[in-house]
Write a structure and sequence with these properties.
Helix content: 25-40%
Strand order of the largest sheet: 3-2-1-7-20
Structural class: alpha/beta
Distance between the termini: 14 Å
Number of helices: 13
Shape: globular
Radius of gyration: 22 Å
Mean pLDDT: 91
Number of strands: 23
């Protein structure tokens, strides 16, 4: 290891920024590598400077926290302690003796390769949306809830004039309120979770006063914008010819099945649908890190089981920005100590550790309440396209399982090509697993994003790698 240790932080969201600042505050040399044009991640996604946004804080929550992160990053960059590499799409982290090589593609077109050497890596790669198909979900006008939020925050774009926000999870609330706040008519907020599911976890949930206040603010905003809430309902189908024109929603019974006598058609030109998030684990899996319950497994210092690799934020499990900040802070402190061959002082981050424990309990209770309807796959008709990249319908997957004997996602993939397309199963994976009747296994992809063959051919050539 070099006398001046260098930490590469992949991701510039709340976790990555908190980790970078904590490490740099303690004298470590840090490079933050991120695919976006500006720091902030999805939670603090910033509009392009050319748009001239006068009040970007109007579309954000916890803006003062972002200002502290932003100003801290700027101060460390000016002092030379942090290097921020923007528009760098990391596709692989290569383990070498006593070092790591971080491979990335530059710019929006992701064609020009670059590589950087570091003594240790901290993965803060966030999460991505769980996409579940239903009849009509491929119509223009049907977008993910996170996609709608990204359009608002990053592009100041209103996706439509009349919207339905549907699915399950806490993300639906800010999306519905955000759309209404900028002039869209939100015809309905359709939440599939049963309010009764949260009762067993009432003590855990109500112990978080700040979260209760946040929920109350959203409830007030929903009332102010007159947004109808349809709890324990789901979208049955989206309708339209060339684009979305309406959606049909229906109530769910106690077993999570659609009650056909409750179907109602709602005219709209936009459907923002979300069913929770999944951790981004591609880089961690390629490095050989252990995956536990869908996220990267870490210890009390946020260390993975691969030496000199830390992980923090949504990549270790979905839990929101506050949990990401706590985990990032702990990871950055730990890395700063370990890379200088000293034992970290856990007492120095005791407050962050307590917050981490509380928030992990809170989000476990929240996730339990926001579980998907037990029979959601029954809503997928045989002609519904499940894998959009390879245009594989549900009928082909069911045939592979029922008639050809496929018992796992990999066999279904071999028989139907579902998951072999451009996204490599990132989008259709949960749906294919649900139709197969099993859990979605770790993907073990060698690359975190598509890579031109020419880049692969030149990888490792002399002169490609630079010291960050």
């Amino acid at each position: 290891m070099s006398p001046d240790p260098h930490l590469a932080v992949v991701g510039a969201g709340p976790a990555g920024l908190a980790a970078a600042l904590a490490a740099a505050d303690r004298g470590l040399r840090v490079t933050v590598i991120d695919s976006a044009a500006e720091a902030g991640g999805q939670f603090y996604r910033q509009p392009a400077q050319g748009l001239g946004a006068r009040r970007p804080q109007a579309l954000h929550h916890q803006w003062r926290t972002w200002e502290k992160l932003r100003d801290g990053l700027a101060a460390h960059i000016e002092a030379g302690r942090i290097t921020h590499l923007k528009d760098h799409h990391v596709w692989c982290v290569e383990r070498k003796p006593h070092a790591f090589i971080v491979h990335a593609l530059l710019g929006p077109e992701q064609q020009e390769p670059t590589a950087m050497r570091a003594d240790a890596v901290l993965l803060a790669t966030g999460g991505y949306e769980k996409v579940l198909p239903f009849p009509g979900w491929t119509l223009p006008g049907v977008i993910t809830a996170g996609g709608a939020q990204a359009m608002l925050k990053g592009g100041l774009v209103l996706p439509g004039r009349t919207a339905v926000v549907a699915g399950t999870g806490p993300l639906l609330l800010p999306v519905a309120v955000g759309l209404a706040a900028v002039g869209a008519k939100v015809a309905a907020l359709v939440e599939s979770a049963d309010p009764k599911a949260f009762v067993p976890h009432a003590a855990t949930l109500t112990a978080h006063v700040g979260k209760l206040a946040e929920a109350a603010q959203y409830a007030t905003a929903l009332l102010a914008h007159r947004i109808p809430i349809r709890a324990h309902h789901t979208v049955v189908a989206a309708h339209g010819t060339e684009r979305l024109e309406a959606v049909t929603v229906a109530a769910l019974d106690a077993d999570g099945r659609v009650r056909r006598d409750t179907e109602r058609r709602i005219p709209c030109d936009t459907l923002a649908v979300g069913n929770g998030l999944l951790p981004h684990t591609d880089l961690a899996e390629a490095l050989g890190c252990r995956i536990d319950r869908g996220g990267v497994a870490v210890d009390e210092e946020q260390r993975t089981d691969v030496p000199s690799v830390w992980a923090a934020g949504e990549t270790t499990g979905i839990g929101g920005s506050a949990l990401s900040l706590a985990e990032g802070h702990i990871a950055g402190r730990s890395a700063a100590a370990r890379l200088r061959n000293t034992l970290p002082d856990a007492g120095a981050w005791a407050a962050a550790a307590r917050a981490r424990s509380r928030l992990r309990r809170f989000f476990f209770a929240l996730d339990t309440g926001y579980a998907l309807p037990a029979h959601w796959t029954e809503q997928i008709t045989d002609d519904t396209v499940v894998c959009r990249c390879e245009e594989v319908p549900a009928s082909a997957i069911r045939e592979a399982v029922d008639e050809l004997g496929a018992g796992d996602v990999r066999t279904v993939k071999l028989l139907t090509r579902a998951g072999m397309g451009w996204c490599q199963g990132r989008m259709c994976g949960p749906a294919v697993a649900g139709l197969t009747g099993g859990e979605q296994p770790p993907a073990k992809r060698p690359f975190a994003c598509p890579v031109p063959l020419g880049v692969l051919a030149r990888a490792g050539e002399p002169g490609e790698t630079t010291q960050g």
